[in-house]
Amino acid sequence: MIVTKAHILDEIKRTAEANGGQPLGLQKFYAETGIKQADWSGKYWARWSDALREAGYSPNRLQSAYNEQFLLEKLAAFVQELGHFPVSAELQLKSRRDSEFPSRDTFSRRFGGKAELAARLIAFCQQRDDYEDVVVICAPVSSNSASEAARNGTEGFETFGFVYLLKFGRYYKIGRTNAVGRRERKLAIQLPERANIVHSIKTDNPSGIEAYWHARFKDNRKNGLRSFEYGFMTRG
Description:
Layout: H1 5-18, H2 26-33, H3 48-54, H4 68-82, H5 88-97, H6 104-111, H7 114-125, H8 132-152, E1 161-168, E2 171-177, H9 180-190, E3 195-203, H10 206-216, E4 234-235
Antiparallel strand pairs: 1-2, 1-3, 2-4
Helix pairs in contact: 4-7, 7-8, 8-10
């Protein structure tokens, strides 16, 4: 079904009147009307602010184009909130729940793929005193995402894998893999004690999330166990 320009303008006016005369931002407008950005972007208008102007409204600050500092400040705070670099679904959910948080597409249009975004966020945070933890979290994302995407033939936020927590005897191992069951069977053969996956997370940033948890528990790491590369270890 084609959504006409006239219908979109009518919906802008209707929802603005219901909102006390203030036009809705892009995410709230979609939630209220079901009209997607793809229904108008590149067809009737280049920007949401253009649509609002044609409907007779002046875009407010948040509806206008975001400046780079605003975007990076929002993303840095969100990384601190999560404790890891956000995956695509987390950005989408945050945008829907927080009207002041930019959409996932806003980040990708401005900065490109995940590796490029992480690199730009690192540069931004290195100039601030309150984002040292964000730099640590973003470092492996910046260095690994591009090469992983190339190996898997994908780009942006859509390279999925798993970060797992494996238990054997008194120890735990954090690692990443493309197939949890296959990795569990392989380690079961190598390890001297029975090994079980006790938890796994599907993510489009496996290297970044694995690196975060390794750094988080680095003081519990145990090395030098025979010839196996056990990675992260902590006493159970």
